[in-house]
Amino acid sequence: MTKSTVLLLPVAFLIPAGVALAETPFAHPSALPEISCDAIHYSAAYLRRYPTAPAACIEGRMLNGEMWARFNTRVYLVDAPQFITVEMLDTAGNPVSTFSFKPAPQATLVMNGKTIPFSQVEVGDTLTFWKSEKRLATPVMPPETRIAWQVFPPPESPGTSRPITQARAGG
Questions:
Q1: Predicted pLDDT of residue 138
Q2: Which of 2, 51, 131, 162 would you label with 45, given CA atoms 20 to 30 Å apart?
Q3: How many domains does the chain have?
């Protein structure tokens, strides 16, 4: 079952515990002024780590004079509470990149209007991330963690031709 999720991400790719989207402007992004994804600036440091990010921008919105980019992902691998691996999708829904993150122990997200713990995220769920241009244009990226592991196609996608062979935590 695919679930739709909206996440507000002021820092990195994680949502702080206790943030309820229903109380933020991103609960109804269509009410915010729309901007082109081409207007959003990415720093060289950000593009070294996430070279496909511009191709994955779904839409841009203005909030309090700040530009935000929307990215869609599909949950690829769940090893909660350790890591969640997602595929970043382009505008056609095709995977363009993969990254992993470790949710904080009490981190929650809003899925279909309900606040749930990350432990309830399932392979195939669709997650929507909003990322501030300030974070995309950062001149220095935090170091990646040194934890790496093999990522295999999920059972729903046997024989996939996707060239995803490794994911790094902390991206």
A1: 82
A2: 162
A3: 1
